[in-house]
Write a structure and sequence with these properties.
The complex is a heterodimer of chains A (about 190) and B (about 400). Chain A is mostly helical and about 190 residues long. In chain A, about 70% of the residues lie in helices and about 0% in strands.
């Protein structure tokens, strides 16, 4: 469990307290421990690795600026970072739409019979399918399967009951199944 | 029933096997859902590798940011985290808001006073050419790398270029990877970020060392009075596909909005637009401030050479997509005839003509459309090409197909 996650509350709280005071070593530690998670959290909501890197780095900048507002006694710092990430992704997508520029065409123009490795092929399909899910569905799948959080940890991070997380998880996987089938993913065909 | 499936699914995910008490229907349902979870989990490793690869650049950026904040002593608003105070909210804050407004006004006044000085700098001159979201190709002389970005000197100003493991680096022959050292003549293709740094997709390097160019602040070309010939030092396509070039002309540097069809014809006639000589021409029926360009033949690079004639080239050509077999796309070009390029998952497709809407081409296989392709040698196939960026244009008419 990463610092600030539900599993190591005292350690996470101490780190968060130091981060709130803009302690440079605390922010360095936070970056090292959380960057990968935040990157994974936003990656499938965006179309490119460069965008994911940009947004993930921006999450820490926004968090740093607003560190004094973070109440480390209540919410795990990871949940706070993810909240910032969600808002930045939302703003980013709105901005792209305003510009009339949709990188989604990168995905949809790809010929389906491309000779790719399984891993890359899956990456492409999942990115496209994730785009069809609701924000909550994307979040639960990211937390559970990309960030390897347990149901209990996911419940804390999403501020929901464990039963609600299980239910959301099932609906999200069902939605993903339908979305994968729509983009022609063989594993998802009925 | 839903709760039961939720529980069975969670047990299956935890144990890696469908619970024995599941009925056949339940088993089928849980198996179907679990398969998608397994796919996501399987992608975790490649996602983590991607995150790890991007981490040094992101860390350097964050460290720079923190250092800047500490220098200022107090927090500022993040570049993209602006609060949206409503109109009435602005007045409702009382004295505190008034004080903040006064401080903001003071900053604005100070900025206005400093503006003439700041805007004369070469660095901000580049901001006239670089617009966030643009795809650009430009030539420059490499400088030093600082904080994960390569500083380069272009004719139009100083530019920070992010070069990472996803950037294709090619030498003057276009084949082998090379080292980007200070003083090297380079051509860079990439996308401008919100911070005005260019995320390089391809960097072509020459072996020769060259001097930094004499930088000129570019001015927009609004009217064409005399014959104008110059060397293309940058080509840019806006996020909506609107093209423009930066032209190094005798004693002048010009940003020129180019009619898309005219640029397309020019790109059809060359395979490396940056460094080519063009003639700017008037066109009928185009908006004021928009011009045509035509090839005027290659001329020598502006930067002094060292006796070695080669200059870096990024292969960029235009043509009409005539077919696609698997990942191989065939493009009919005027200069080279049919050219085949391999499309990969990393190939970036962008709009390359303002008359084309993303919605219009989404899901298309782009056959029959004009495209501008920036490509690099295919390491998997001798003599083959990999498309790095594809700018999708309008449909070709039957005459040109």
């Amino acid at each position: 469990v990463t610092a600030g996650g539900p599993g190591d509350q005292s350690e996470g709280a101490d780190l968060a307290r130091r981060a709130a005071e803009r302690d440079a070593s605390a922010w360095s530690e936070l970056f090292e421990t959380q960057y990968r998670s935040i990157y994974g959290f936003v990656r499938y909501r965006l179309q490119g690795a460069h965008e994911a890197e940009d947004i993930a780095a921006n999450v820490f900048e926004v968090a740093y600026l607003n560190a004094h507002r973070f109440d480390y006694r209540g919410v795990p710092i990871q949940a706070w970072l993810m909240g910032i990430a969600r808002n930045l992704v939302r703003d980013h997508i709105k901005k792209l739409r305003r510009r009339g520029f949709h990188e989604e065409i990168t995905e949809t123009m790809m010929p389906p019979e491309l000779d790719r490795t399984d891993a890359v092929d899956m990456h492409h399909d999942l990115a496209a399918a994730m785009g069809d899910l609701t924000e909550d569905q994307q979040t639960v799948l990211s937390l559970r399967f990309l960030m390897d959080k347990s149901v209990a940890e996911t419940a804390v991070l999403m501020d929901r009951s464990e039963d609600a997380v299980k239910n959301l998880q099932r609906r999200a996987l069902a939605a993903m199944h339908r979305a994968l089938a729509r983009v022609g993913y063989e594993g998802a065909r009925e | 029933v839903t709760d039961r499936i939720d529980d069975l699914l969670e047990r299956a995910l935890a144990d890696g096997a469908i619970p024995a008490d599941a009925t056949d229907d339940e088993r089928a349902e849980v198996e179907r859902l679990r398969a998608n979870a397994v796919q996501l989990t399987a992608s975790r490793a490649s996602l983590n590798a991607e995150a790890d690869a991007s981490m040094p650049t992101a860390r350097a950026r964050f460290e720079r940011f923190v250092a800047a904040q500490q220098v200022h002593g107090r927090s500022r608003q993040a570049p993209r985290a602006a609060r949206r105070a409503g109109f009435f909210g602005w007045f409702a804050g009382g004295l505190r808001t008034y004080a903040a407004a006064t401080a903001v006004l003071a900053v604005v006044v100070l900025a206005a006073l400093l503006a003439p000085v700041v805007f004369d700098g070469a660095e901000t001159a580049s901001a006239q050419v670089l617009v966030p979201g643009d795809y650009v190709e430009f030539e420059a002389v490499a400088g030093d790398s600082v904080d994960g970005a390569l500083g380069v000197s272009a004719d139009f100003g100083e530019v920070q270029v992010v070069v990472d493991e996803r950037t294709h680096v090619v030498d003057a022959t276009g084949n082998a990877p090379g080292q980007i050292g200070p003083g090297r003549h380079v051509v860079i293709a990439g996308v401008v970020g919100d911070d005005l740094r260019v995320r390089a997709r391809t960097v072509a390097i020459a072996d020769s060392q060259v001097e930094r160019p004499d930088q000129k602040r570019p001015r927009p070309l609004e009217e064409l009075r005399d014959q104008l010939i110059g060397r293309v030092v940058a080509v840019a396509f806006g996020a909506d596909g609107r093209p423009r070039i930066v032209l190094a002309a005798p004693n002048d540097s010009l940003v020129i909005n180019v009619q898309p069809e005219s640029l397309e014809a020019f790109l059809n006639a060359v395979d490396a637009p940056v460094g080519s000589a063009v003639r700017v021409i008037r066109l009928d029926g185009v908006p004021r401030g928009v011009f045509g360009v035509e090839l005027a033949g290659d001329i020598a690079p502006a930067t002094p050479d060292t006796g070695q004639p080669e200059r870096p080239r990024i292969l960029t050509f235009a043509g009409v997509v005539t077919g696609r077999t698997g990942a191989i796309v065939t493009i009919e070009t005027e200069l080279r005839g049919p050219v085949q390029v391999r499309v990969t998952l990393d190939t970036q497709f962008r709009i390359g003509d303002p008359s084309v809407l993303a919605e219009e081409v989404r899901g298309e296989r782009v056959i029959g459309r004009f495209v501008t392709v920036q490509a690099v040698p295919d390491l998997q196939s001798q003599g083959g090409l990999v498309a790095v960026t594809v700018l999708v244009g309008r449909e070709a008419d039957s005459r040109t197909r």
